[in-house]
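This protein record is not my work; I was only asked to verify it. Where you disagree with what is written, explain briefly why. This is what I was given:
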Amino acid sequence: MTTILVTGGTGTLGRLVTERLRADGHEVRVLSRHTQPYAVDLREGGPELDAAVAGVDTIVHCATTPRGDDEQAAVNLIAAARQAGVAHLLYISIVGVDQVPFGYYKTKLAVEKRLAGSGLGWTVLRATQFHDLLVQLFQGLAKVPVMVLPAGVSDQPVEVAEVADRLAELAAGAPAGRVDDMAGPEVRTFESLARAFLKASGRRCAVVNVPLWGAAYRGFRAGGHLAPERAVGKGTFEDYLATRIRR
C-alpha cells in the first residue's frame, strides 16, 4: 500500500478521508496546523512541510480557508511535492468555481490551475456543498425572528461521507486530471432546505426571500454551482437532518 498525506486531515472531510484510507491499509499522515507530528501551516511552508511530504506517494489536499489564503498554501504544497517527487496530488474543489464569480470560488479555481500547470500528476474532484455547511448557515440565519434568504437560489447538497469515499478511491488510483463532478441527489430551493431545517430542529422562524445584487448572486441564481446531470449522491438533506439535528 502507499503512503498518503491528507492535508486538513482533522477537518470535516479530511477526517473521513483519513479513516477510509487507513481502513484500506494505507499509511496515512495527517497534516494540520495543530496536529503533531505534522503540524504545518501551509501558508508558510518551510522545513516542517518538507518533512511531512518526504517519502509520500500521494497527497490528498483537503485543507482550505475562506480567508483567501488557499492559493499561497497550494503554491507551497506544490513546491514541496515537486522536491519530494510525489507522484499524485489530489484536490477537492467546488462545482461552479468557473461559473460563479464568488471570491472563495475564484481562489479554488486558481488552485486548480496551479495544479494543472505544476508538472505533477494531479486529480481534481469538484463537489457541491456539504449538508453540514447548509446547517451552519441556517443556524446562523435562524437566530433572529425572520430568516432572510437569497431569492431564486437553489442548492444541491451532498453527503460528505460519500465525497470522502470517492476521494479515497481516487487517492488509490493514478492521476486522472479533472474527474466527473459529484453532486447531491436533489436540486432544492434554498427555501425548501431552510424549511426542512426549521422543521427538524423545532425552530419557529418566518422565512423571507429577498433579491440580492452582484455578479456572484446572478451566478448562483443561474445555477452555476449545480450539477443536476451528476446527481450521484444518495443521502438527502432530510437523511442528514434525521441523524444530526436534535429538536
Remarks:
- The chain has one domain: 3-244.
- The beta strands are 3-7, 27-31, 58-61, 88-94, 122-127, 146-150, 154-155, 177-178, 188-189, 206-210.
- The radius of gyration is 19 Å.
- The chain has a mean pLDDT of 95.
